[in-house]
Every structure is written in structure tokens, then in C-alpha cells.
Amino acid sequence: MAADLSAPSFWLSQVDSQRPHRPPLDGDLDVDVAIVGAGYTGLWTAYYLGLAEPSLRVALLEQRFAGYGASGRNGGWCSALLPMSVPAMDRRYGREAAVAMHRAMVSTVDEVGRVVATEGIDCHYAKGGTVTLARSPAQLIRAREEVAVSDRYGLGLSFVDATEASARCAATGVLGGTYTPDCAAIQPARLARGLAAAVERRGVRIHEGTRAVALLPRTVLTPQGTVRAGVVVRATEGYTPELPGLRRALIPVYSLMIATEPLPGPVWDAIGLADRETFGDYRHLIIYGQRTADGQLAFGIVAEVIQRRYVSGGGGYPAFTFRGGSTVIIGAEGEVRYIVAKSVKSEPRLDKQREYAATNGADVYALDTCRHELGRRSGTHVPSGGEQ
Ligand SMILES: Cc1cc2nc3c(=O)[nH]c(=O)nc-3n(C[C@H](O)[C@H](O)[C@H](O)COP(=O)(O)OP(=O)(O)OC[C@H]3O[C@@H](n4cnc5c(N)ncnc54)[C@H](O)[C@@H]3O)c2cc1C
Fold first, then answer.
1. Binning pLDDT at 50, 70 and 90, where does residue 233 land?
2. Is 38 within 8 Å of 60 (Cβ atoms)?
3. Partners of 232 in the beta sheet?
4. Is the pLDDT of residue 365 over 50?
5. Torsion angle defined by CA atoms of residues 305, 311, 316 and 320, in that order, rounded to the nearest 10 degrees
6. Residues 104 and 192 in one domain
7. Cβ neighbourhood burial of 299 (10 Å; 0-12, 13-18, 19+)
8. Model confidence over 140-150: pLDDT tens digits?
9. How far does the centroid of ligand 1 lie from the alpha carbon of residue 76, in Å?
10. CA 78 to ligand 1 centroid distance, Å
């Protein structure tokens, strides 16, 4: 099943349109709240504003279309993770606040599940938890340490032995791991699109194809008109540095993912992830994966780091190997790609991969046929200190 290569991401190739289909702003506008950016930040803000005060006049301005950014391109982990550990929050804000924050994150996973059920958003939400594997003695130490921290704060992370960890996700060299129930696998673009429709039903106007060229106090300038608002919400995440005066507000970082074709049952029997657990391991690099509702394997990694550290020439780096030989491989050449196949080496040219595998007698279940690359300009961000 070849996905639409012109789509900005694999996930977006599975939704109705990859172009703006809502009318842009046409002229000046006065509203109570103007939200710039129709990703999760903008859409959830609009959603809860609509619930809290239905009479509010809310307008969402989006340069491309709802879900165009990282929200339509991510790993699909609806998790309770924060980019700051509970002990770090404890040091800065105190134990009570840290634990409360963690609990709020945990309840958010269920809240997303509740809203998608209430609003009829078919985003393939499956709360199978996360298994994080320890695949070396050093990783095992990290796993145990994380469980010790969890026990200290009552966070509910369990240590799982090699048998239980492998039963959830059968990778090679599993020595143990951890498991938390607090994560759901989702199809992220479907969530963004479904949320956009839900906020429209609540009277929020979404203007796609409308780029904010400057954010001023209570004012958003766009080529189509000026929006005046009591409150302006900036929800532009990785794109924020493109706005005037905000070049140093955030450091955009990116991660790349790819997905396989749907894998046949016997491959999934070998790999596991029967409850659609999201998975990763305890290496220092971030890797993340999920089994999609369609039986595809979606996998992500921090690409630049891999390229710098491990990949040279035209070879491939096996990023993750399941028992039975199915391997996620990262190619070189500045662009990341993965293959899931059985005992097959990488072939740098995507269009040659299947042919290469066949002629090498590999038992190929699935090769990537689509450049399921997630945008280079979108992504998570880290505050750079330029702005609080
Ligand atoms: C590969 C990858 C994997 C990830 N995996 C996960 C994961 O598994 N779980 C998780 O929780 N997080 C994950 N993240 C992070 C997560 O996806 C983002 O933090 C989240 O989607 C950000 O949402 P947002 O609405 O703030 O930003 P975005 O989704 O980027 O939305 C911003 C929107 O603003 C619009 N915009 C930008 N500038 C303007 C402008 N000037 N005028 C009008 N509109 C504008 C953009 O077009 C875009 O639609 C991942 C990110 C990436 C890149």
C-alpha cells in the first residue's frame, strides 16, 4: 500500500485533504480570542474555551491547514510524559506541585480518550500503555533507577522482567524494562482533524491559508486583514522563530519517523505489541514506536544525532531489531529512512529497496514504500532562554 508521497506526512496521507479547505480570512475581524496556529495547542485551547464560555468569539488563524504542523506528524503517543522529570520539578517547585503535575498529565491521557469518544473523533485511540525496554546492562540500571524514582513519588511505573517485557515487545537482547499504563497510541493527524471539526461545531471560525505575519499586542496582522482580539494566543510551536521578534524565543528541534506497509499477522505474532503498546528503550537517544490500528509499524528517532554518530558512507544503521530479524534501519545521505524486513540489509535508494531485498533472497514482509518523513521545520521545542 503506497501512501501519498505528496502529503506532508504518512499520517496526513491518510486523512481527507492535504490542502487548506476552509476559507481564509477575508478582511478585518474583531474577536474576543484570536488563536494563531491550528495544531493541538491551538485546537485544544479553542475547544476548552468553547466549552467554558460558548458566547466567546474565537477565531483560529492557520497558515496552511489544521494539523499541518507537528500535530499531524508525530509519534502518536498520547502520553503523560513531560520534558522535565518529576524530581527536577520537585527541586524547582516542590514535591506536591511536581506530583500534582504528573497526576494532571496522567488524567490528560484519559481526558483525550473521553473527548474523542464524546466528539466521535476516530483517531484510533488505544490505551495500551508504554513498554520501555532495557537491552543492555547499562539500560537495565536506568530502568531500575526510574522505577525507584517512581516508587518514591508514587507514580505507578512498574519494573517488568525480561519475559514480561518481551511478551509485550519482542526485541532482541531484552533484559527487562518498565511498563506504564498511562499512554494511548493514536493516529495523530486524525486527532487534529477531528478536533478542528469539533471546535467548528462549537462556533469557532477556522481560517486556513491565513498566515500571521506579525503578532502585536491584541492584534494579529495577516495579508488578508487585521484581527483585533482581547487575547491573542500564539500556538505556533516549532514555527515560532519565523515570526518577527521571536527568532530566539524557541529552538526548533526535529525528529523523523517512518512507517512500514501493513505487516502480516505472523510478523505481529513475533513482534507483539498486541495491546498497541507504544514502545522505546533506555538508550540515551530517543526512539519511539507504535503499532498502528492498520497493522503498520511507525517508528521514530532523533535523526541528526544518529547520522552524526553512527552513519557514514552509504551504509545503514540498524536502529532497532525485533526477534525474528525484522529490523528498523536508518539510511545515510542526509535523509532518514527505515526498512522493516526480515534479515535484509538497507538499500539507500527507496525505489530499489524491494527489488534489492528480493534479489538477496530476503524474506521481506514489508518495505517502506513511502517517504514517511515528518517535517523538518515542525517539531518539539525547547525554551532557549530568550523568553519565559
Ligand atoms: C516527529 C515528531 C514526533 C513527535 N512525537 C510525539 C509523541 O509521540 N507524543 C507527543 O506528545 N508529542 C510528540 N511530538 C511533539 C508534538 O507533536 C508537538 O509538541 C505538538 O504537536 C505541538 O503542537 P502545536 O499545536 O503546539 O504545534 P503544531 O502542531 O506545529 O501547530 C502549529 C501550527 O501553527 C501554524 N503556524 C505556524 N506559524 C504560523 C503563522 N505565522 N500564521 C498562522 N499559522 C501558523 C502551523 O502551520 C501549524 O499548523 C513529536 C513531534 C515530532 C516532530
1. very high
2. yes
3. 34
4. no
5. -40
6. no
7. buried
8. 999 999 999 99
9. 12
10. 14
221 inside domain: yes
Residue 255 has pLDDT above 90, yes or no: no
The residue with cell 529497496 is 353
Output the pLDDT for position 377: 38
238 Cα nearest atom in ligand 1: 30
Cβ(47) – ligand 1 distance below 6 Å: no
Kindly give the distance from the C-alpha atom of residue 380 to the centroid of ligand 1, in angstroms, as a whole number: 7
Beta bridge partners of 25: none
User: What is the whole-number distance in angstroms between the Cα of residue 283 and the centre of ligand 1?
Assistant: 25
Whether 2 maps to a domain, the answer reads: no
Q: Decide whether any atom of ligand 1 lies within 6 Å of the 62 Cβ.
A: yes
Residue 268 has what DSSP assignment?
H
With a cut of 50, say whether residue 367 has pLDDT above it.
no
Ligand 1 atom nearest to 71, measured from its CA: 21
* 194-221: average pLDDT: 97
224 and 359 both lie in a single domain: no
296 lines ligand 1 (CB under 6 A): no
Could you report the per-residue pLDDT of 38-49, keeping only the tens digit for each?
Answer: 999 999 999 999
pLDDT tens string 273-316: 999 999 999 987 788 899 999 998 888 776 554 444 444 444 45
Domain boundary among 219, 249, 279: 249
Specify the DSSP class assigned to residue 229: E
Angle between helices 188-201 and 40-52 (to 10 degrees): 30
Which atom in ligand 1 lies closest to the alpha carbon of residue 381? 19
Q: Return the percentage of the chain with pLDDT > 70, whole number.
A: 76
279 Cβ closer than 6 Å to some ligand 1 atom: no
Q: Residue 126 forms beta bridges with which residues? A: 185
Can you tell me the distance from the alpha carbon of 382 to that of 255, in angstroms, rounded to the nearest whole number?
13
Q: Which three cell numbers stand for residue 140?
A: 537495565
Domain count, the chain: 3
Nearest CA to ligand 1 atom 4: 74
Is any atom of ligand 1 closer than 6 Å to the C-beta of 224? no
